[in-house]
Design a protein that fits this description.
The chain has 377 residues and is α+β, with helices and mostly antiparallel strands. 33% of the residues lie in helices and 24% in strands. The chain folds into two domains: 260 residues, Aminopeptidase, CATH 3.40.630.10; 106 residues, Alpha-Beta Plaits (2-Layer Sandwich). Strand 17 and strand 18 form a beta hairpin. The protein binds zinc ion.
Length: 377
């Protein structure tokens, strides 16, 4: 099964990249959903465009066969680029790369999934497949509205393929860190710094005292990182500050670290320097890690074996960034991410994909889908 219709892919690519679909742009995301719906219907799939949660986030579900599905193809239709961006810098090919808003993250990936299924159809393999496509519209803002739908759908599937960008040199993503944000507010007491500082309780000093304790959460062995990334406090140079706030970015790779980190923050107020300072802490590890399991390693091996047959030496990486793969993996469904086009610089104007990866990734995904069906057939 080899994919050769590069021209057809590029034509679709230009169409989809030139549709503005920032998170929150319901109309724009719906336009993208309708584009794909039309094509999946043509393949004989059952399609359903719905707006879960607040009714403003279009999501497309397309299925072939009945649950449990062998394969879930997961992707997002929203981008980080505002309305008007596509008109400003439309889809463009320069040399052996393509540019445009969302070209890498992840409209190219959505088209890999579509064209892989079309390839399976053309070769008579689609009918034997049980596959479920889910494209959501709020990944870039944390998938708040679509998360229940993602989890419900993943629960009907045996394997999840996520079409976030493939990293240069064909590096897929086998692990993603999870994490969350914590916020610390310290309230002390104001006082004149010159006349009567002893009447004050310095909130900045109290908060600063906690920073090295937070830094100690970092643990290279478990892959946990914790960093104070925002720190505010004080207002006037001659006043003992009564308020200070900090924000902390925490990432974990080991699911067990959630408990350790959360109980650390729950007990942090007890470590305060001044008994008169009040310490308030909010936040949680609300994004679970996408951790490797025996099953996900088996899926990864199946993918890299198929890539080998296409002459590609595919390896896996771990990344600190989250995707919807974090949710499907934490629900216990073997998940491999980074199966979109090879590219880089996501969320930036110089975002690009490598055109040479189009036939490779489409062929690869159609082979992987076929193998996953055979395995269960
Ligand atoms: Zn993305």
């Amino acid at each position: 099964m080899k994919f050769t219709d590069i021209e057809g892919f590029l034509e679709d690519f230009a169409s989809v990249v030139n549709m503005d679909s920032a998170s929150g742009n319901t109309e724009g995301i719906l336009t993208v959903a309708r584009f794909f719906e039309k094509r999946f219907l043509r393949l004989g799939m059952d399609c359903d465009v719905r707006m879960p949660g607040n009714g403003k986030v279009p999501c497309l579900k397309a299925t072939m066969g009945k649950p449990p599905y062998d394969v879930m193809c997961l992707g997002h239709m929203d981008t980080v680029f505002p309305e008007g961006e596509a008109a400003k810098r439309p889809f463009e090919i320069r040399g052996d790369q393509a540019f445009g808003p969302g070209v890498c993250d992840m409209k190219g990936g959505l088209l890999v999934a579509l064209h892989a299924l079309e390839t399976l159809k053309d070769t008579g393999n689609l009918d034997t497949l049980s596959v479920c496509v889910l494209f959501n519209g709020d990944e870039e803002t944390g998938s708040d509205q679509s998360r229940p739908l993602i989890l419900e759908t993943a629960g009907q599937c045996r394997h999840v393929l996520v079409f976030e960008p493939c990293r240069p040199e064909y590096r897929l993503v086998s692990q993603r860190k999870g994490g969350g944000w914590f916020r610390i507010e310290v309230t002390g007491r104001e006082a004149h710094a010159g006349a009567d500082p002893h009447k004050g309780v310095n909130a900045v000093v109290a908060l600063a005292h906690l920073v090295p304790l937070i830094q100690n959460l970092n643990n290279e062995n478990t892959g946990t990182s914790a960093h104070v990334t925002v720190f505010h406090g004080g207002d006037k140079v001659n006043i003992i500050p009564s308020r200070a706030t900090a924000s902390v970015d925490v990432r974990i790779l080991d699911p067990g670290e959630k408990q350790r980190v959360e109980s650390f923050f729950a007990g942090l107020h007890q470590k305060r320097l001044f008994k008169d300072a009040q310490v308030r802490i909010t936040g949680a590890i609300d994004r679970p890690p996408m951790a490797e399991t025996d099953q996900s390693r088996a899926l990864q091996e199946l993918i890299t074996t198929q890539a080998e047959q296409l002459g590609i030496d595919m390896k896996a990486i771990t990344t600190g960034g989250c995707s919807d793969g974090n949710f499907t993996a934490s629900a216990g469904i073997p998940t491999i991410d980074g199966l979109g086009l090879v590219g880089a610089n996501s969320h930036r104007p110089d975002e690009y994909v490598e055109l040479a990866s189009i036939p490779v990734m489409v062929s690869l995904i159609s082979r992987v889908c076929r193998e996953l069906t055979r395995k269960n057939g």
